[in-house]
Amino acid sequence: MMLDQDRFFPADPTTRSIARRLYKEIAELPLVCPHGHTNPAWFATNEKFTDPAELLVTPDHYILRMLVSLGIDHAMLGVATKDGAPTNIDGRQIWRLVAENFYLFRSTPVRHWMDHTLETLFGIDAPLTASNADKSYDTIAEALQTDAFRPRALYDRFNIEVIATTDSCLDDLQHHATVKDSAWKGRVIPTYRPDCVTDPDSPGFLQSLAALGDLTGEDTFTWQGLLGAHRKRRKLFIEFGATATDHGHPTALTCDLSPSECKALFADICTGRATSEQKEQFRGQMLTEMARMSLEDGLVMQLHVGSVRNHSTEIFKRFGPDMGFDIPSRVNFVHALRPLLNAHGHDPRLSLIVFTLDESVYGRELAPLAAAYPCLRLGPAWWFFDSPDGMRRYREITTETAGYYNTAGFNDDTRALPSIPARHDLARRIDCAFLARQVAEARLGEDEAAEVIVELSYHLAKRAYRLGENP
Amino acid sequence: MMLDQDRFFPADPTTRSIARRLYKEIAELPLVCPHGHTNPAWFATNEKFTDPAELLVTPDHYILRMLVSLGIDHAMLGVATKDGAPTNIDGRQIWRLVAENFYLFRSTPVRHWMDHTLETLFGIDAPLTASNADKSYDTIAEALQTDAFRPRALYDRFNIEVIATTDSCLDDLQHHATVKDSAWKGRVIPTYRPDCVTDPDSPGFLQSLAALGDLTGEDTFTWQGLLGAHRKRRKLFIEFGATATDHGHPTALTCDLSPSECKALFADICTGRATSEQKEQFRGQMLTEMARMSLEDGLVMQLHVGSVRNHSTEIFKRFGPDMGFDIPSRVNFVHALRPLLNAHGHDPRLSLIVFTLDESVYGRELAPLAAAYPCLRLGPAWWFFDSPDGMRRYREITTETAGYYNTAGFNDDTRALPSIPARHDLARRIDCAFLARQVAEARLGEDEAAEVIVELSYHLAKRAYRLGENP
Amino acid sequence: MMLDQDRFFPADPTTRSIARRLYKEIAELPLVCPHGHTNPAWFATNEKFTDPAELLVTPDHYILRMLVSLGIDHAMLGVATKDGAPTNIDGRQIWRLVAENFYLFRSTPVRHWMDHTLETLFGIDAPLTASNADKSYDTIAEALQTDAFRPRALYDRFNIEVIATTDSCLDDLQHHATVKDSAWKGRVIPTYRPDCVTDPDSPGFLQSLAALGDLTGEDTFTWQGLLGAHRKRRKLFIEFGATATDHGHPTALTCDLSPSECKALFADICTGRATSEQKEQFRGQMLTEMARMSLEDGLVMQLHVGSVRNHSTEIFKRFGPDMGFDIPSRVNFVHALRPLLNAHGHDPRLSLIVFTLDESVYGRELAPLAAAYPCLRLGPAWWFFDSPDGMRRYREITTETAGYYNTAGFNDDTRALPSIPARHDLARRIDCAFLARQVAEARLGEDEAAEVIVELSYHLAKRAYRLGENP
Predict the structure, then answer these.
(1) Which one, out of A127, B165, B176, B213, has a CA that is 20 to 30 A from the CA of C378?
(2) Which pathway is this protein engaged in (chains A, B, C) (predicted)?
(3) What is the ipTM score, two decimals?
(4) Count of CB pairs separated by less than 8 Å, A with C
């Protein structure tokens, strides 16, 4: 057994025993996965995964960046180069490289997720090292050949109740259609992600606008046509089960311009020669437009901000985006969200879930805002911070101002399907540990903590994302 | 018993027993309340409080904002609308609404304060719920009819040694006069708050300036007249026992302009058409002028910054200020305070107590500044942060740089008279817990910790606010 | 015994016993001191220290600022005034003043360092107080008269393996030469600190440029000459054992201008009338130039940013720099480092160690950057933050993103030779405490933690600073 039954619980015996009891309340609850990046094709085709490295290493930017930071090249880890320069495609060799260097991940979440995945999925009972690399590679490769490791089987085995993918607003949703039409009972729903047409800095922005027009029959180079096209696409996503939109912006700026200002701004945007300031304004205006559409169609908004994408030009040129070189930066929500909040912040139809990579705003900005505006909910600790201490700090800093009920539960935010149970389990344990301390210090009754842990593990996510009913 | 005798103490048995011993040293010490917002009329007229909701719910913006954030309207909670639209005035109904939703406050300070108030003042021994709402309402309403719950009786029962109110510099201090002239021995003193005439953005600024002139016989539309008027008003406040001024500014900017620049700036301010920059400069200059007057008359300065007031325009329009929609924002002290500190930072006559809502400045700015300049003291964790974890973080982050003796002790900062003992008790317990960890980890001797806890609970506040003698 | 054998370890018995076992692994390891400010003359001349106050008080800005902040003048503590006004030069009187006020340092690192120094070096077994001041003064003064307290003897006794001083790039390194030529085996190496000629705001900048020319025979008022001069000086430092450069800049800005832009910029700098923006750009360009030279000669770069120097004009005028009035301020690394990182961030020859005084960047900026770029390492918690809780926060916030192996080990950064063992011991204990919690919560195996603690205490510093071999 590599996994201690009390892992992540405080060492103090009294507190630990409370944490254990709380954990028992929720250990068997289904997983609600309202935000993530799994590939819907997996669930549509239900094909077997093949190579352990391809499944567990190459697509994981957490693993890539750590190894790169200690001097191992992306190409050695199987990442395809953009210019076709040779890359390591030997899965076993990649696996060995990771195993030899796996000590680098000590005390990081990758280590915790991997241990959990190896033991619970593949019965491997020791942390990855150079000496056990070949054996674990074989064990995993063999397992992947069985039906029990097909995507739908994993979904069922993981006790997932619902999983949302993240999909371009231009996506044809064919995989979601396949799943929907199948006899399989899994609930795989899309999320409406329109960044390619709301952010003028996204690559191919004007082509994306044109494509949006083609898909909807709207003239998306006019302001009204653009809004109409979004309405149609959102409707389609809702038909396939979507309950949310997702917006990844450099800043949290929102705007609330008059219709004529919007038209004039969009005309400049369409020229492809807008200023940085105009682009920022357009992104901000589109957030408010998305909020307005949410009043009509009920989609929950998610806003993720503060990542400086592709910080290393060299890595971006050689390998493209999502290679571990997105770096957080300082953000401001107080002034930035005000236009949207002043327009619709008290409308009970709006639900806006906000995520940050700048922990200094938890206590100063996000908790106070969420503890005032009815529309706002705090998204969970995210990306660099969905780690034991990161999630603990999130609770310690936000709870005393915003309580538990202004938070949106956990989401795993991952493209790594096998790690989903590990991530939920870790989050649940950290919440148990947090609540156990509350109980041990007589800040909350244990009966109340038992109610709260069920909320944090299950109900809050369902409510925040309006997932109550399978449509 | 709802209140555990070890509440807020660490669970580790060794540490907990140290905390208990430290707490015994200070549990009976009088309460020093050098900064707060109780109504002096209470102590002057000594009339009974009437309705439980009116006393414990409606004026409390902590309670309002949390309930509003989960979808309950201010009007349902008894808050009067500005346009006279109907509002809930049935105290029992309001109390029930709070009780039904009281689980929302789990692990927030409101919960801790309310539990303490209910048990110690009214003998109620379970947290508020829908099912006990009517009973607790009756219990409280009945108690309020007795003399033991009149304001002066509460003051005496709470073992308050001194309580400062916060008063506009235009206030006639009649209630303070009444208290002073009475046979009652309570010490209720005013605090000089001149924001209405130092902040050109405060509503009715020019009228306030005129009123200041009427009260003092000075021409307050001239620079010298303005300063002279402040001097006279400060003198009056001192006669009524004031030992401090209080300044609530959007930023910590201070300025140190020449007299001719001041005159020119003030002339522009008086036109009512000054720029934002000029207004900011005027606020900054007035802080330095107040510091200079403090050198003469000995009033301790308090500076509270970083709140974006009335963030929701809708709430402000319907209900006015102080409705839970003041949101912190990022602040900077290092450059902002420099002009004032360079002018008077080493003058032993000056005492400047600084408060922040941006925790990221504790370690980076305020502790280093307070650990260098003789005039500076750190105010306690404030507003959103006078909570168990908020106060713990304050000690953990500031102590190693600034020590204990550059801090200003606790103040309750509240308008909620019944909660005052709860707030002091919570702060004292968190300090006991912090010190107990210091002792348990051999970072401080227990005899020393016993000295320190008395300082933190009692002497530091008296010294920082120059309350040593009852004039 | 004043020093508890379990000091700084968590109170929980299980965790504490793990911490003890880990500590045993490293308690006897040699001290690696790759960054500090001891005086090389001490090791060259090996003369006895004389006065306890002169050794332990007057040069220590941590002690000065705390006492000043509570109202004691620098002059009372023996600091020489710039205008020759009288200063206290009676060591015993200074020592008494410190002792009387030593309670002010409770729970600060000065207290911990002093206790450790007094007990382990001088056999004094109680914290400094007014009543034991004379006795401890005599004990120390007497010890300083013996050969066992000469600088080289202390170096040997402290089990120092290597100590780096920090030296102006204009320094003649004569003391290092003396040490090198001596029979003594101590390894005292210089560090190349070129701020006087890379920062146009440093006092006497143009004279320093001229001096650099004189030393190297280069025309240092031309861009090529300037670069050539640096290359020659760096070469000389390397000959005396240097493995690193050190850069103390107000911000982390780096630039990567074209050669012609560099020439034009430097021409303006040389006029002495450059704008603030040009000066900032020049500092930023010089960092990138230094990085380029490091590719050639292998010197490790250190970058310390975010200190507002000499915040109090009065103190600077009366006593000069380094008087405890350097105050941290907000910094940004993400955008600032990008030009340098884009130029050379993936070059395996570059090693850049970054330090911050703004803790809010640990998690948001520095850990993510260090966990991506091969050249970057996190310097340890620094200056205001090399304290028990400061170092704990550093590990808690950086480890989950950057792991242990992207950090640069500990350095004591001190000019206080007697306190060096105390500082290393404190850092090692805090790391033991951190790792013990990891083990107790089953986040890391104890065997792994035992490996990690050796890395943190010894190997990481050697590797990060390329100190592997004594040249």
Answers:
(1) A127
(2) Carbohydrate metabolism; pentose and glucuronate interconversion
(3) 0.96
(4) 128
